[in-house]
Amino acid sequence: MQAAKKLAIMGCATMALYLLTVSGAAERLGDLAAERLGDKRMKNVVVVRETPAPTAAPMPLRVMATEAPAHPAMAETESQVLPEMAPMEQAEAAPEQETADSGEILETTIQGGLSVNNATAYWVDVTEILSAGPGLSLPQGEPQILIIHTHSSEAYTQAGLDRYEPSDTNRTENTEFNIVRIGDELTEIFQQAGLNVIHDRGIYDYPSYTGSYTRSGQAIEQYLRDYPSIQMVIDIHRDALGTDDVVYKTMAEEDGVCASQVMLLIGTDESGLEHPNWRQNLAVALYMQNAVNARHPTLMRPIALVQQRYNQHLSPGSMILEVGSNGNTLQEALAAIRLFGQAAAPALADLVG
Fold this sequence. Notes:
alpha/beta; 33% helix; seven-stranded mixed sheet; 353 residues
């Protein structure tokens, strides 16, 4: 009887393994196991696997009949973290993988340059988009650019004289030390280049993180009503990279400068929400990425193209700008935004007319 039971169990296991193999599930389970066994893998870094080249000639921004890619950790919806959110906010809000201040901090440089980390099913031809140009004109003598911060209390690892009273892990309402300070710096650089910028220094994620994109979206809509000349909306954040045990700080490898890296994030309509401007936004982002990469080849991480829209449907020329991560210091982020601004500002000034 005992031998019969063993044979029955072995038979069931063999059949299960066969079914997993023919369905492809075994390969996916193996990938999952490999990811979980990775030593201190960064949660917010997408591992890009090679896929076969398309058989047809690639056309820019066409939907490809390919399997939908895995969602990157950075594109998870806030509903997974905050289930009580309203339905629209669940589909759009950007989560963070915050870690304790006591976690080990490791440096990393994410290879980027002129590239797109595509987490959608849309086919993107970078060369063709760049050849077509940004398709954006900034009006002379009127407000052109709005800088805002949906997660305004985002801050950096405290170091040196940069000390603040935290409202949460790596967060503070003190605008001298949070992401608003980065916006101050970029605003000044853009204005010195002759650009007309409005900087909203309001706090939209405190005391409640829930609904932050709804609140910042309402503010953007009001600015666009008051200043219809605005053609660009830049929502500045800082990223969060790490696990429970380790926090990563992104570092550019530019001579003589100790700076974090910078990333542009572009949303699409793949979530099912209306977003007619995303192709325009991507063209502007690639235009800026190209200008910055020409001067600082290691500063920019790949552009992130994601399914959610993050309020970017409200205006052409909209994007999220991620400056450093929670492992970086404020001074490293300030150095990064100066490099970025000084390279991007002349390129944007060329669009005025």
